[in-house]
Specification:
Number of helices: 2
Helix content: under 10%
Distance between the termini: 28 Å
Order of helices and strands: EEHEEEHEEEEEEEEEEEEEEEEEE
Largest sheet: 15 strands, parallel
Radius of gyration: 16 Å
């Protein structure tokens, strides 16, 4: 809930259950029916309208992806839990924690304002498909800074599933490694406008596909994007920019 801190001490690990039945389906009551909710229905930590929520402390959150896979939780999209999902909330901070072994998108922020994601270590190795590092969906006033991020699928992923769009995002001083997809990516879901994004002094150590991907394939108007001090290493496609129309919403 809001106005609280979930404090995980440096020596502590919060572990998700290895039992699939322990992850209920929880979605906002005002869900729009877009893919943000179709795909993201379960998680270890869930918050809705939880203003001034903090997750901090230096400890770890472990999703036990291998155990859940062994227990039968499969499927490319949906049917698998994220570590963190936060919807329709203001003044959110997730700092100084290690997030590892999520069985789906590691952390999802949807229709939030004022989000600080700082000093995180994310380790989401290629256990299965669609293990994103972080998904920032239809949010505004977001800081992604000083993180060490490694994931199977897209690592820093900016999305818009609705006409609300994305505004005022700072992505700064992060180290990014992607095993099977893209390091820093706009999309694929790009419905509303994406504007005022600064990508400053980041390093991509490896990306199987794109290092920096700026895409609009669902009608999004992408504007006011600044990229400076970006180091790209071992990327099959260092920079990929695409304007297209796929006649669909989601992804």
């Amino acid at each position: 809930k809001g106005n609280m801190t979930l404090y995980i001490a440096e020596s502590a690990t919060l572990s998700g259950s290895p039992e699939p039945a322990d992850y209920p389906i929880l979605c906002p009551t005002n869900a729009s029916g877009t893919s943000a909710w179709r795909y993201c229905k379960q998680s270890l930590i869930y918050a809705h309208q939880a203003d001034k929520l903090r997750i901090d402390g230096g400890g770890a959150i472990d999703g036990q992806a291998k155990a859940l896979l062994k227990a039968g939780m499969r499927g490319k999209n949906g049917g698998r839990p994220s570590l963190i999902r936060i919807f329709f909330s203001k003044d959110i901070a997730v700092r100084n924690v290690t997030l590892r072994n999520s069985h789906f998108w590691t952390q999802v922020y949807d229709h939030c304002q004022g989000v600080a994601l700082e000093n995180q270590t994310v380790r989401c190795p290629p256990v299965f498909a669609n293990h994103d590092g972080m998904d920032i969906c239809d949010c505004r006033d977001v800081i992604v800074r000083n993180n060490d991020l490694e994931s199977e699928d897209d690592v820093i992923c900016i999305k818009s599933h609705s006409l609300a769009g994305v505004d005022n995002i700072l992505i700064e001083n992060n180290t990014v490694t992607c095993h099977r997809a893209n390091a820093i990516k706009f999309g694929t879901a790009t419905t509303g406008p994406i504007r005022n994004v600064k990508i400053l002094n980041n390093t991509v150590r490896y990306a199987k596909f794109g290092g920096l991907c700026i895409e609009s394939v669902d009608g999004s108007k992408v504007s006011d994007i600044q990229v400076r001090g970006l180091t790209l290493e071992r990327c099959a496609q260092p920079i990929f920019i695409r304007l297209a129309f796929r006649n669909a919403v989601g992804g």
